Amino acid sequence: MFWTLYRKEIKLSLRSTRFVLALAIIMAAFALSGIMGSASYHNQLAEFRQRDAEATRNLMDQMGNLSGVAALPQPALLPPSPYPYIRDLSSTRLPERIVVNATRHREMEKAMRSNPLLNAGETFTWEFILAMAGGFIAILLSYDSIAEERRQGTISLIFSNPLTRWRVITAKLLALVTINAALVASGMLLSMLILAFTDVPILAGDAPLTMVIFFALSILYLAFVTALGIFISTLTRTPSLALTALFFIWVAFSLVLPSAARVTAGALERIPTPDERERASDQVIGEIMEENNRTRPVVNGSTIVNYSRIPFTAVETHVANGYLKVYEALRRLQGEYEEQLFDQGGFGLDLARWSPVELFRESSAKLTGSDIERWRRFLDEVENYRKELGAAIKALDSRDTGSPHVYFVNDINIWLSQRPVEDVAQIPRFGFKELPLAQRLGEALQPAAWLILWTTIIVLLAVIAFLRADVRQKHVGS
Amino acid sequence: MIGRLAALTFKNHILTLRFAIGVAMAVLMVVAVTLVQIQDYEARAQAAAQFQRTRLEIRERTTAWSMVRTVLEVPPSQLSFIAKGISNAAPNNIEISAGRPATLLEMGYYHAANPLLDFLPDPDVAGIVAFFFSFLAILLSYDLISGSREQGMLRSLLAAGVGRLQLLAGLALGGLATLALIVLLSIGAVAATLQWASQIQLEGGVLAGLAIITFEILLYCLLFYAIGLLCSCLCRRSNLSLLFALLAWVVLVLAVPALATQVVVQLDPLPTMESLEKTTREIDIEFQQQLNNYNQEHSPFRTNRNLYYGWNTGNIFDYGVRNAHFVVRSPFQEVIDFRRDVRAFMEPLRERAMSRIEQLQREQEILMNRQVEKAALLGSVSPASVLRRLCAVAAGTDQVSMERFVESARQLRREYVAFQRSKGYGSLDFTTDQHRDQQPLDLSGLPPLPRFEWNITTVLADSALDISLLIAPLIVIFLAVGFIFKRYDVR
Q1: Cβ atoms of B81 and B124 closer than 8 Å
Q2: Which residues of A touch B274 (CB under 8 A)?
Q3: ipTM metric
Q4: Is the same domain home to B74 and B196?
């Protein structure tokens, strides 16, 4: 009997106009997403490779003309997200390139990513389609599942069968989730076909498994929305009221809560103003320079006063040591500031977890390795690379007898070493390591667990509401 | 008759539960967003003022021209709560210096918000209206024809002698009145919030801006009301008309705006920053070579070790001859004389190299602006994109305002160069120690910073095309509704 009801629900849904519309929306959206995702994948990868090659060429150009490895700024490029068709954050302000040398402190704000005039907003990825259009379709398919049956009186007919209410609602929920899953699966398959035909390696590495897990996450999210639809449908008297209420709840989850989270994080987790940061760095620089001049009073800032009695390299080394301390302090300040930025961003995301829509988006982001942590890892790796670069340059410098053995560079002091570097291979290059799937999955599980909790609660509420519901026919509007 | 029908429609609308919930949510959301965004504006304005004060203090002590680093800041907009526009994503200040070009690429992100918060949406009134008010408008109109037919009211009305076009006019006017009520209540709540919770005065530009935005929002809502009405005319059952209306909403509000930008970025990508840097570097190397050659030929020391070279002090190329103390065995006066000769020879070359770099950056800037224009053109299919752009224009946070800002920075830089020349200051003076123990520089007559006033004529001129993009489909849809309803089977 349970399966009869399940089949009846599926048949009814399949025959309805709204299913055809939902299918049309999903197929069109996923087809577009496939086309855009493929273009995005190829373009981003080509651009990354081009930039990497150009960076290497720029490096070679400099080798011939600049004097000394110390002066070489090295670009650290963040590769594009490996799955731009599943999830791609298009913020124009998050860094994807940090120019670094052995001593320079990194500045993530100055990294220009793409056209800053283009307010990119959302990109047409699977995750976006499912979070917005998918959620919307799940609402459309479920909003009248109980209210309409009650309006037409067919629910009484169902109860005339020897079937418990528990089974009725489970059959309805299961049928709707199946329909949603079929819609998503067909959409994803279409998108995958387009991607495969346009040479996107969707079967390489852990891409297939990532897609399967993403599919499971999508079904979980759509199950949540469907359960919510059934719950509200049970509580309301008319389908149109159910739809209105559901839309308002959906707006609250997808727009109001995330916005409120951003605003609250901005208000509660304060970050220093640019003016405060400037003052802090001025103070640090002043203290270090004062200390440097006191320990060996030949230096006033970077200007050498009493030059005649000091051997040339000793003076420069002393100035250089002062600068090294300054750069170290500035790096520390920058690191602290970045921590504050991450704290604020992380706090915002934590608050946004009250929204199941955001839980789905966050778990997709973590699964594809394109969440906030991607940038934290990028900055950490850049810092490690800077140290590696410093060690390599120090080693090169120490072999160069003509060098003053100072491996730092101040922008105006590119004359420190006079000899062009012969062996470019000795300069380490930056490479960003993507996280393995197991680790990404581990991180995605936490928001997914919250989403499971949400879904369980709403399913339970829907069941309880349905068990207690008055199923008699109401002649609304007559 | 039309008046009575309109009044009836208006009454029917405002008595529904969806209207009550919708209005309550709309007012609540716009008030919350306004409260948040005016805090943001006030913090930005305060930070900008503090920043300018600090810069002025530094300038008063300046003894060398290259230390006169005036920073021109994109003014925080009082109306940014309506539309943040590009104010979060775009850089917001530029250093006006005689030695550096004034282009978008030279701009900095001084007061920009935490980029990591970009993972979450930044709400503004335009966003709420684009997303929520449009849905509310559709919800009001999707069943006006199909729902009335289902209930048999349509037949009764026509039997009572009401003309079909009269009925439509009544529905449209009633809808307009309802939407006007929603919009006025919301904007009224916004104005009240501004009055009580902020320093922003409700006068002049703010008031005019709010009036223009109110009109635009009303047009936008009416357009979605018309779309709902069209769907209602196209279907016989209200359930189906709701589906079509929602489909239109999903496409116009969610899909097209997300797609437009992405399509443009994929089809018309910008040259990479690396390729720009490469060309810049070539100019740089050529200039450095000229400096070395001159040194080899004319220097009393015959070595390049006495040269320094780099990018600093607000100049695109900073170069010169090191002070005597680095060239230990050289007579001091000889170095000073040689430095003067080098400058006399190299300054025109530096100016030329800088113009070439400025030209390159300008070309990139023009491409960036073109990309935005193409995205805007593609996004014009969506009334939501059009409305957001209109609100950004009214708030002064759009791309065109940014272009104007960069142009005024360019103008100011030209004035600075003229001033510098009239005073005979050298743009590289910082790099010598000649200014030590000198009196602060005479900066009387320094060109003042441009003022960015809200101008109603500019706003209206910039908005005219976009407003027509809302009005034209509105007329077309109403004509289509009239045409279809004439043949609608009311049984």
Answers
A1: yes
A2: 50-51, 54-55, 58, 75
A3: 0.81
A4: yes
